[in-house]
Hints:
CATH superfamily of chain A: Thiol:disulfide interchange protein DsbD, N-terminal domain
Order of helices and strands of chain A: HEEEEEEEEEEEE
Order of helices and strands of chain B: HHEEEHEHEHEEH
CATH topology of the domain at 63-206 in chain B: Glutaredoxin
Radius of gyration of chain A: 22 Å
CATH superfamily of the domain at 63-206 in chain B: Glutaredoxin
Low-confidence stretches of chain A: 1-30
Radius of gyration of chain B: 27 Å
Largest sheet of chain B: 7 strands, mixed
Largest sheet of chain A: 4 strands, antiparallel
Helix content of chain A: 10-25%
CATH class of chain A: Mainly Beta
Oligomer: heterodimer
Number of domains of chain A: 1
CATH architecture of the domain at 63-206 in chain B: 3-Layer(aba) Sandwich
Number of strands of chain B: 7
Low-confidence stretches of chain B: 31-63, 212-217
Distance between the termini of chain B: 101 Å
CATH architecture of chain A: Sandwich
Shape of chain A: elongated
Mean pLDDT of chain B: 80
Strand order of the largest sheet of chain B: 2-1-5-4-3-6-7
Strand content of chain B: 15-25%
CATH class of the domain at 63-206 in chain B: Alpha Beta
Strand order of the largest sheet of chain A: 1-3-9-6
Distance between the termini of chain A: 61 Å
Number of helices of chain A: 1
Amino acid sequence: MRGGWVAVGLMVGSSLVSQQGNLSAPTAKPKQYVSYAAEEQVVKAGKKSVVELRFRVTEGFHVNSHTPKSELLIPTNLTLQPAGGVKADAVQYPAGTEYSFSFEPGEKLDVYTGAFTVKVPVVVDAGSHTVDGVLRYQACDNAACYPPKSLPVQVVLTAK
Amino acid sequence: MRRVVVLGVMVAGIALLLWAGWHNLRERKLAMQRARESQVVLIPEKQGQAAERGAQSGGEDGGLAPVMRGKQAPAFALTSLDGKKVSLADYKGRPVLVNFWATWCGPCKIEMPWFEEFRKQYAAQGFEVLGLTDDADAGKDAIAKVAQKAGVTYPILLTDGKVQDSYGGLDVLPMSFYVDRNGVIVEQTAGLGSKDQIEANIKKIVASGAVAQTGGQ
Protein backbone atom coordinates (compact mmCIF):
# COMPACT_ATOMS: atom_id res chain seq x y z
CA MET A 1 0.00 0.00 0.00
CA ARG A 2 2.75 2.41 1.03
CA GLY A 3 4.72 1.57 -2.11
CA GLY A 4 1.66 2.33 -4.23
CA TRP A 5 1.25 5.83 -2.82
CA VAL A 6 4.93 6.58 -3.31
CA ALA A 7 4.70 5.37 -6.91
CA VAL A 8 1.66 7.59 -7.57
CA GLY A 9 3.50 10.58 -6.07
CA LEU A 10 6.57 9.96 -8.21
CA MET A 11 4.46 9.60 -11.38
CA VAL A 12 2.62 12.87 -10.74
CA GLY A 13 5.88 14.65 -9.99
CA SER A 14 7.67 13.31 -13.05
CA SER A 15 4.79 14.24 -15.37
CA LEU A 16 4.95 17.81 -14.08
CA VAL A 17 8.70 17.94 -14.63
CA SER A 18 8.32 16.67 -18.19
CA GLN A 19 5.65 19.32 -18.88
CA GLN A 20 8.09 22.00 -17.76
CA GLY A 21 10.72 20.60 -20.11
CA ASN A 22 8.36 20.88 -23.08
CA LEU A 23 7.59 24.47 -22.25
CA SER A 24 11.20 25.52 -22.53
CA ALA A 25 11.91 23.62 -25.77
CA PRO A 26 12.81 25.77 -28.79
CA THR A 27 9.97 26.05 -31.29
CA ALA A 28 11.47 27.64 -34.42
CA LYS A 29 14.79 28.24 -36.08
CA PRO A 30 15.76 31.90 -35.75
CA LYS A 31 16.07 34.15 -38.77
CA GLN A 32 18.30 36.48 -36.76
CA TYR A 33 21.83 35.42 -35.89
CA VAL A 34 22.21 37.89 -33.00
CA SER A 35 19.83 38.23 -30.07
CA TYR A 36 19.43 41.15 -27.70
CA ALA A 37 18.87 40.66 -23.99
CA ALA A 38 16.47 43.46 -23.12
CA GLU A 39 16.84 44.54 -19.51
CA GLU A 40 15.72 47.65 -17.69
CA GLN A 41 18.62 49.94 -16.86
CA VAL A 42 18.57 52.04 -13.71
CA VAL A 43 20.89 55.07 -13.63
CA LYS A 44 21.40 58.17 -11.50
CA ALA A 45 19.42 61.15 -12.77
CA GLY A 46 21.55 63.94 -14.23
CA LYS A 47 24.82 62.02 -13.73
CA LYS A 48 27.09 60.47 -16.33
CA SER A 49 26.30 56.78 -16.55
CA VAL A 50 27.12 53.94 -18.90
CA VAL A 51 24.33 51.81 -20.29
CA GLU A 52 25.30 48.30 -21.32
CA LEU A 53 23.49 46.52 -24.15
CA ARG A 54 24.09 42.78 -24.14
CA PHE A 55 23.99 40.81 -27.35
CA ARG A 56 24.65 37.18 -28.17
CA VAL A 57 25.72 35.71 -31.50
CA THR A 58 24.03 32.37 -32.19
CA GLU A 59 26.37 29.44 -31.63
CA GLY A 60 28.19 28.38 -34.80
CA PHE A 61 28.04 31.87 -36.31
CA HIS A 62 30.22 34.98 -36.15
CA VAL A 63 29.63 38.61 -37.06
CA ASN A 64 32.17 41.22 -38.08
CA SER A 65 33.31 43.43 -35.21
CA HIS A 66 32.79 47.20 -35.38
CA THR A 67 36.25 47.46 -36.93
CA PRO A 68 36.67 44.61 -39.42
CA LYS A 69 40.02 44.35 -41.15
CA SER A 70 38.71 44.94 -44.68
CA GLU A 71 36.70 47.83 -46.06
CA LEU A 72 34.61 45.29 -48.00
CA LEU A 73 33.29 43.74 -44.81
CA ILE A 74 30.19 45.11 -43.12
CA PRO A 75 30.88 46.28 -39.54
CA THR A 76 28.56 45.69 -36.60
CA ASN A 77 26.98 49.05 -35.88
CA LEU A 78 24.48 50.31 -33.32
CA THR A 79 22.41 53.38 -34.04
CA LEU A 80 20.15 54.90 -31.41
CA GLN A 81 17.33 57.28 -32.11
CA PRO A 82 17.27 60.55 -30.16
CA ALA A 83 14.99 60.38 -27.12
CA GLY A 84 13.77 63.24 -24.94
CA GLY A 85 15.55 63.45 -21.59
CA VAL A 86 18.41 61.21 -22.71
CA LYS A 87 21.77 62.55 -23.91
CA ALA A 88 23.76 59.72 -25.45
CA ASP A 89 27.46 59.94 -26.25
CA ALA A 90 29.36 57.94 -28.89
CA VAL A 91 28.73 54.19 -28.73
CA GLN A 92 31.64 52.12 -27.38
CA TYR A 93 32.21 48.73 -29.01
CA PRO A 94 34.20 45.83 -27.63
CA ALA A 95 37.34 44.65 -29.39
CA GLY A 96 36.77 41.70 -31.70
CA THR A 97 38.61 38.42 -31.69
CA GLU A 98 40.73 37.07 -34.51
CA TYR A 99 39.08 34.50 -36.78
CA SER A 100 40.02 32.72 -40.00
CA PHE A 101 37.94 30.47 -42.23
CA SER A 102 39.46 26.99 -42.32
CA PHE A 103 39.65 27.24 -46.11
CA GLU A 104 41.48 30.57 -45.96
CA PRO A 105 43.74 30.49 -42.87
CA GLY A 106 45.91 33.35 -44.14
CA GLU A 107 43.14 35.94 -44.04
CA LYS A 108 42.48 37.14 -40.52
CA LEU A 109 39.07 38.55 -39.68
CA ASP A 110 38.03 40.53 -36.61
CA VAL A 111 34.74 39.16 -35.29
CA TYR A 112 32.34 38.83 -32.39
CA THR A 113 31.23 35.37 -31.33
CA GLY A 114 29.11 34.38 -28.33
CA ALA A 115 28.23 37.25 -25.98
CA PHE A 116 29.34 40.81 -26.58
CA THR A 117 28.41 44.05 -24.87
CA VAL A 118 28.05 47.47 -26.42
CA LYS A 119 28.31 50.45 -24.05
CA VAL A 120 26.60 53.81 -24.39
CA PRO A 121 27.59 56.73 -22.12
CA VAL A 122 24.45 58.67 -21.19
CA VAL A 123 23.12 61.48 -19.04
CA VAL A 124 19.46 60.90 -18.25
CA ASP A 125 16.83 63.20 -16.75
CA ALA A 126 14.80 61.83 -13.84
CA GLY A 127 12.00 59.49 -14.84
CA SER A 128 11.46 56.61 -17.21
CA HIS A 129 12.63 56.79 -20.83
CA THR A 130 12.64 54.48 -23.82
CA VAL A 131 15.36 54.62 -26.45
CA ASP A 132 14.91 52.77 -29.72
CA GLY A 133 17.76 51.68 -31.92
CA VAL A 134 18.99 49.19 -34.48
CA LEU A 135 21.98 46.86 -34.47
CA ARG A 136 23.16 46.23 -38.01
CA TYR A 137 25.38 43.21 -38.53
CA GLN A 138 26.41 40.63 -41.08
CA ALA A 139 26.86 37.01 -40.04
CA CYS A 140 28.70 34.02 -41.46
CA ASP A 141 29.24 30.45 -40.34
CA ASN A 142 32.16 28.26 -41.35
CA ALA A 143 31.02 27.81 -44.99
CA ALA A 144 28.46 30.47 -45.86
CA CYS A 145 27.53 34.08 -45.26
CA TYR A 146 24.16 35.67 -44.68
CA PRO A 147 22.88 39.02 -45.95
CA PRO A 148 23.17 41.97 -43.56
CA LYS A 149 20.47 42.07 -40.91
CA SER A 150 18.97 44.78 -38.73
CA LEU A 151 18.05 43.86 -35.17
CA PRO A 152 15.72 46.35 -33.48
CA VAL A 153 16.66 47.12 -29.87
CA GLN A 154 14.77 48.98 -27.20
CA VAL A 155 16.41 50.29 -24.05
CA VAL A 156 14.20 51.14 -21.09
CA LEU A 157 16.01 53.62 -18.83
CA THR A 158 14.91 54.63 -15.36
CA ALA A 159 16.77 57.56 -13.80
CA LYS A 160 16.36 58.17 -10.07
CA MET B 1 -2.39 5.18 14.92
CA ARG B 2 1.07 4.91 13.36
CA ARG B 3 -0.48 3.95 10.00
CA VAL B 4 -2.72 7.00 10.13
CA VAL B 5 0.29 9.29 10.77
CA VAL B 6 2.26 7.69 7.93
CA LEU B 7 -0.74 8.01 5.59
CA GLY B 8 -1.20 11.65 6.64
CA VAL B 9 2.45 12.44 5.94
CA MET B 10 2.21 10.77 2.52
CA VAL B 11 -0.95 12.67 1.59
CA ALA B 12 0.64 15.93 2.73
CA GLY B 13 3.77 15.11 0.72
CA ILE B 14 1.80 14.41 -2.45
CA ALA B 15 -0.25 17.56 -1.96
CA LEU B 16 2.98 19.55 -1.55
CA LEU B 17 4.43 17.95 -4.69
CA LEU B 18 1.29 18.77 -6.67
CA TRP B 19 1.27 22.37 -5.42
CA ALA B 20 5.00 22.80 -6.20
CA GLY B 21 4.49 21.40 -9.69
CA TRP B 22 1.49 23.60 -10.38
CA HIS B 23 3.29 26.67 -9.01
CA ASN B 24 6.37 25.94 -11.11
CA LEU B 25 4.27 25.37 -14.21
CA ARG B 26 2.49 28.68 -13.69
CA GLU B 27 5.79 30.50 -13.24
CA ARG B 28 7.16 28.95 -16.45
CA LYS B 29 4.04 29.91 -18.38
CA LEU B 30 4.31 33.49 -17.11
CA ALA B 31 8.00 33.56 -18.03
CA MET B 32 7.20 32.28 -21.52
CA GLN B 33 4.48 34.89 -21.86
CA ARG B 34 6.94 37.61 -20.84
CA ALA B 35 9.51 36.25 -23.31
CA ARG B 36 6.93 36.23 -26.10
CA GLU B 37 6.00 39.83 -25.25
CA SER B 38 9.64 40.87 -25.51
CA GLN B 39 9.92 39.00 -28.82
CA VAL B 40 7.33 41.39 -30.16
CA VAL B 41 9.77 44.20 -29.41
CA LEU B 42 12.66 42.36 -31.01
CA ILE B 43 11.14 41.31 -34.34
CA PRO B 44 13.36 41.77 -37.40
CA GLU B 45 12.96 45.08 -39.20
CA LYS B 46 11.86 43.49 -42.47
CA GLN B 47 9.96 40.60 -41.02
CA GLY B 48 7.35 40.62 -43.76
CA GLN B 49 9.99 40.36 -46.44
CA ALA B 50 11.84 37.62 -44.58
CA ALA B 51 8.65 35.65 -44.07
CA GLU B 52 7.85 36.00 -47.74
CA ARG B 53 11.31 34.78 -48.67
CA GLY B 54 11.03 31.97 -46.15
CA ALA B 55 7.80 30.79 -47.77
CA GLN B 56 9.37 30.84 -51.18
CA SER B 57 12.53 29.12 -50.09
CA GLY B 58 11.07 26.47 -47.89
CA GLY B 59 10.34 28.31 -44.66
CA GLU B 60 12.04 26.95 -41.54
CA ASP B 61 15.28 25.93 -43.19
CA GLY B 62 16.37 29.52 -43.76
CA GLY B 63 16.52 29.21 -47.53
CA LEU B 64 18.82 26.18 -47.63
CA ALA B 65 16.39 23.73 -49.23
CA PRO B 66 17.01 23.23 -52.97
CA VAL B 67 13.51 24.43 -53.85
CA MET B 68 14.45 25.40 -57.41
CA ARG B 69 15.81 21.99 -58.37
CA GLY B 70 13.90 20.53 -61.32
CA LYS B 71 12.35 23.87 -62.28
CA GLN B 72 12.93 25.95 -65.38
CA ALA B 73 15.60 28.58 -64.62
CA PRO B 74 13.85 31.96 -64.27
CA ALA B 75 14.73 34.37 -67.07
CA PHE B 76 16.70 37.52 -66.31
CA ALA B 77 18.29 40.39 -68.19
CA LEU B 78 20.95 42.21 -66.17
CA THR B 79 23.73 44.71 -66.73
CA SER B 80 27.29 43.46 -66.66
CA LEU B 81 30.20 45.33 -65.07
CA ASP B 82 31.18 46.66 -68.49
CA GLY B 83 27.69 48.01 -69.10
CA LYS B 84 26.37 45.32 -71.46
CA LYS B 85 22.89 43.84 -71.19
CA VAL B 86 23.18 40.11 -70.57
CA SER B 87 20.25 37.75 -70.35
CA LEU B 88 20.04 34.07 -69.53
CA ALA B 89 18.30 33.56 -72.88
CA ASP B 90 21.59 34.53 -74.58
CA TYR B 91 22.91 31.14 -73.44
CA LYS B 92 20.01 29.04 -74.67
CA GLY B 93 21.12 25.46 -75.35
CA ARG B 94 24.27 25.81 -73.24
CA PRO B 95 25.01 24.53 -69.73
CA VAL B 96 25.21 27.54 -67.38
CA LEU B 97 26.23 27.95 -63.77
CA VAL B 98 24.35 30.87 -62.21
CA ASN B 99 26.28 31.87 -59.10
CA PHE B 100 25.09 34.49 -56.61
CA TRP B 101 27.88 36.09 -54.57
CA ALA B 102 28.81 39.29 -52.70
CA THR B 103 31.99 41.23 -51.95
CA TRP B 104 31.51 40.71 -48.19
CA CYS B 105 31.18 36.94 -48.55
CA GLY B 106 34.47 35.14 -47.83
CA PRO B 107 33.35 31.64 -48.92
CA CYS B 108 32.11 33.09 -52.25
CA LYS B 109 35.59 34.33 -53.10
CA ILE B 110 37.10 30.89 -52.54
CA GLU B 111 35.04 29.15 -55.22
CA MET B 112 35.21 31.88 -57.87
CA PRO B 113 38.71 30.88 -59.09
CA TRP B 114 37.46 27.26 -59.28
CA PHE B 115 34.55 28.36 -61.48
CA GLU B 116 37.02 30.19 -63.74
CA GLU B 117 39.17 27.06 -63.98
CA PHE B 118 36.18 24.83 -64.85
CA ARG B 119 34.90 27.40 -67.32
CA LYS B 120 38.13 27.01 -69.31
CA GLN B 121 38.16 23.22 -68.84
CA TYR B 122 34.62 22.75 -70.17
CA ALA B 123 34.60 25.63 -72.69
CA ALA B 124 34.53 23.18 -75.62
CA GLN B 125 31.22 21.82 -74.31
CA GLY B 126 29.74 25.33 -74.24
CA PHE B 127 29.85 25.68 -70.44
CA GLU B 128 29.47 29.22 -69.10
CA VAL B 129 29.44 30.85 -65.68
CA LEU B 130 27.39 33.93 -64.80
CA GLY B 131 28.33 35.63 -61.52
CA LEU B 132 25.42 37.62 -60.10
CA THR B 133 26.47 40.12 -57.46
CA ASP B 134 23.97 40.32 -54.61
CA ASP B 135 25.68 43.46 -53.41
CA ALA B 136 23.95 46.67 -54.43
CA ASP B 137 25.79 48.88 -51.92
CA ALA B 138 29.34 47.90 -52.79
CA GLY B 139 29.65 49.85 -56.05
CA LYS B 140 30.99 48.73 -59.41
CA ASP B 141 34.63 49.51 -58.60
CA ALA B 142 34.71 47.36 -55.47
CA ILE B 143 32.93 44.51 -57.26
CA ALA B 144 35.35 44.72 -60.21
CA LYS B 145 38.33 44.76 -57.83
CA VAL B 146 37.19 41.60 -56.04
CA ALA B 147 36.41 39.81 -59.33
CA GLN B 148 39.81 40.77 -60.70
CA LYS B 149 41.59 39.58 -57.55
CA ALA B 150 39.79 36.23 -57.88
CA GLY B 151 41.02 35.98 -61.48
CA VAL B 152 37.48 35.97 -62.85
CA THR B 153 36.91 36.64 -66.55
CA TYR B 154 33.34 35.29 -66.82
CA PRO B 155 30.51 37.86 -66.91
CA ILE B 156 29.76 39.56 -63.60
CA LEU B 157 26.21 40.87 -63.56
CA LEU B 158 24.64 43.41 -61.22
CA THR B 159 21.43 42.18 -59.64
CA ASP B 160 18.26 44.25 -59.87
CA GLY B 161 16.55 43.31 -56.61
CA LYS B 162 14.08 41.06 -58.46
CA VAL B 163 16.26 38.23 -59.74
CA GLN B 164 17.08 37.10 -56.19
CA ASP B 165 13.39 36.60 -55.44
CA SER B 166 12.74 34.82 -58.72
CA TYR B 167 15.43 32.33 -57.69
CA GLY B 168 13.65 31.57 -54.42
CA GLY B 169 15.08 34.38 -52.25
CA LEU B 170 18.67 34.34 -51.12
CA ASP B 171 19.10 33.95 -47.37
CA VAL B 172 22.57 32.51 -47.75
CA LEU B 173 25.62 33.04 -49.96
CA PRO B 174 27.20 31.65 -52.04
CA MET B 175 24.19 30.18 -53.80
CA SER B 176 24.60 28.35 -57.12
CA PHE B 177 22.15 27.04 -59.71
CA TYR B 178 23.35 24.52 -62.29
CA VAL B 179 21.23 25.01 -65.42
CA ASP B 180 21.31 22.32 -68.11
CA ARG B 181 21.04 22.77 -71.88
CA ASN B 182 17.24 22.62 -71.65
CA GLY B 183 17.18 25.54 -69.20
CA VAL B 184 16.29 23.32 -66.24
CA ILE B 185 17.94 23.78 -62.83
CA VAL B 186 19.51 20.37 -62.26
CA GLU B 187 21.19 21.23 -58.95
CA GLN B 188 21.05 24.02 -56.38
CA THR B 189 23.74 24.47 -53.74
CA ALA B 190 24.05 26.85 -50.77
CA GLY B 191 27.33 27.63 -49.04
CA LEU B 192 30.83 26.64 -50.02
CA GLY B 193 31.03 23.14 -51.43
CA SER B 194 34.10 21.12 -52.29
CA LYS B 195 35.82 21.64 -55.63
CA ASP B 196 35.05 18.02 -56.55
CA GLN B 197 31.35 18.48 -55.82
CA ILE B 198 31.25 21.62 -57.96
CA GLU B 199 32.88 19.77 -60.86
CA ALA B 200 30.47 16.85 -60.45
CA ASN B 201 27.55 19.27 -60.76
CA ILE B 202 29.10 20.93 -63.81
CA LYS B 203 29.54 17.49 -65.42
CA LYS B 204 25.82 16.83 -64.93
CA ILE B 205 24.78 19.93 -66.89
CA VAL B 206 27.50 19.53 -69.50
CA ALA B 207 26.28 15.99 -70.18
CA SER B 208 22.67 17.05 -70.57
CA GLY B 209 20.88 17.14 -73.95
CA ALA B 210 22.42 17.73 -77.35
CA VAL B 211 25.57 19.84 -77.64
CA ALA B 212 24.77 23.35 -78.82
CA GLN B 213 27.69 25.69 -79.36
CA THR B 214 25.85 28.78 -80.49
CA GLY B 215 24.72 31.85 -78.59
CA GLY B 216 26.24 33.76 -75.67
CA GLN B 217 29.34 35.90 -75.60
